[in-house]
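Hi C.,

You asked whether I'd gotten around to modeling the 491-residue construct. I have! Everything is below, sequence then structure, no commentary in between.
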Amino acid sequence: MKVYIIKACAERMVKEYKKIYDCAAKGGVSNINNDVQNTTNIDFILNEKPIKVLVKLGIPAILMALLDELNSFIDAIFMGQYFGSDAVSSMSIILPIMLLMVAFGTLFSEGTSIAIGRYLGAKNIQKANEYLTNTVVITAISSAVCGVIFYFLTPVVIRIFDVSEGVRYFADIYLRILSLGMPIFMLVIVLAKNVYTEGKTSYLLITTFIQLGLNIIINYVLIGILRFGVKGAALGTLLSELLQISMLIKYINSNKMAMKFSFKELRLNKAYFKEVISLGLPIFLSMILLAITMGIESKIIAKFGTAALSVQTITGYAFSISSSIAGGIMSVSVVILSYSVGAKKIKRFYEILKYSVLVVFIVVTSVNLILVINSSLVVRMFTNSSNVINLIKIPALIYGLTAPLIFTTNVVLYAMQPVGMEKTSSILFALQQVLMFMPLLFILKEFGLVCALSAQPLSEVIGGIITIILIPLFIKRTNNYFIKKKEVDNT
């Protein structure tokens, strides 16, 4: 009897070791309590030199952010070339409302990204799976509800803006279609963010490139050939992103990622909501406030005429290139910082922060210099209006000069989130977007268009200076956070 038991145990052990061997051959490790998981990339993020991790993950992230930003950029170009300046001007209304929509998705995607970064840093794969599943389900449901609400509110919101009927017409059509497709672009944000959090930026870059190419093709077919009008621009974005969702879900559930999406992991408890919402709140509030202030700015700029709205729109799109690059670097930085917090590596935390600030400053300064020098060429991509070309020169110079300080200090604001300074980060974002921007806007608008357009960068520069002053407090709080974390883990 004992022989049979020993034999059965031996056979069982052989099977288990075969699983481990097969997994290792695929580049993964065995999870004792769950399916085979791949943690190779997690180890790379935790242990490799900070600058090497930033470069390897940052370059695809920057390219991905640029490609992603090009979606609305391409829509604006198609609208401008086929329907004229009214269509381009409508984007100054569309952008703040779209930002407002996207903000609801970032509340969960950003918060989950930081939380998952901590759990992956601590090698807690099961908890990461739980948070990923929770966020995908919550996002799908909440974005569908918000989309229906936005669909009916769109005409009401558009009437707030003092614009021509032509501008209002284009904005209404575009936004109504995007409202109904809100779950699509929200799920892209959430799924991409979590693939990104595990450091799989190369695959994400591929899917974003495919999505962008498909968007261009569908835009051309629907607008240029089938004459769908502005509907074609909105439908092109949604249809191409639908393909990206399927690619991302398939990749997440492959053996190339440690995290997995599974309804079995769905646990919508109080702890999940508390952690994710508190972590995502700074970026969420920043986007909400930015959407509101952009809307108010557009309403004021509209009083200077259609050409002024075009200047605002084109300036925003042109310098979104540098903001996307900075955003890509900062997103990678926050992910690696979160891993460092989870692994309790304070020295690595500060090294990553130092290199992130340096890289953002150098890259943003270089890109903005190119944009300022070639501002006229950028305008001609949208319109040949000499009035717009002349008006944009000084605003472009102001944006170009202020952006390096703004984005390098924003790196510190992002770094506050993984170390328990979410409230401080939220207050500073609110200070930039509302408490300083609004008074500046209403004062400077009395001195003309150029001064009105300068209100946003100037308010953010003041916010950046305040952030620099608060750096000693940030360092002190960060040190205390790591000390407390180690004390809790030791008990």
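If it helps when you're writing up: Residues 1-37 have pLDDT under 50 and may be disordered.

Thanks,
B.
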